[in-house]
Amino acid sequence: MDGNGRWARKRSLPRHAGHRAGVKSVREIVENSARHGVQYLTLFAFSSENWQRPEEEVGMLMSLFLEALRREVKELHKNNVRLRFIGERDRLDSKLNEKISDAEAVTAENTGLRLQVAVAYGGRWDIVEAARNVAGKVASGAIDADAIDEAAFAAELQLGSAPDPDLLIRTGGEQRISNFLLWNLAYAELWFTDVLWPDFGHAEFEAALAYYSRRQRRYGHTGEQLEAVKC
Ligand code: IPE
Ligand code: MG
User: Fold this and answer.
1) What's the whole-model pTM score?
2) Domains parsed from the chain with CATH numbers
């Protein structure tokens, strides 16, 4: 979700106005995803690297997360959304952590859209954490080093048993991954748009889905092999 700051600057507003405007786009993409039957939506809200922003902006973003949770969880729950947070929670303050745990607990049994929010998340951090967990299991004798395969390793990552993303949408014009789900995005289709996150709405979402539906996903096979399976 990139481009909040530029959206604000274009309007001669402070950066936090852009972040606030971005919350509306979150609501919209959640609604659109649910309506389309998307099963998993993962939002990159705050990266491991974002801690380096000015203290005032970081503080403002943390308050905005707290406020958004206070305001939105009831409605999300009513809409059968199951919430989950991924990232380095130890770095978040206790009030926010408490709200996050509450939101997860309240919505734990919901069966609709799985909404995963990455806060204080970094793809490299995620992989190192998983490696540390696996190493701990080997050291304690719980598993054998030879038993580590891709599935066993992936199970230790933040997304755990959730499927790999099919589509990555990045707003704001940059064409890079910026340390998002490095492992899990291995075969994701990538869609980039110049639209700034606060301007991302229904039409953009539809355009991203249309792009996705035109892709042939070969996973290393040839196009001919896939055509043969279809027949
Ligand atoms: C993304 O918008 C929001 C967060 C990283 C929290 P930016 O704040 O990166 O917006 P730009 O890139 O300055 O426009
Ligand atoms: Mg940015």
Assistant:
1) 0.96
2) 4-215 (3.40.1180.10)
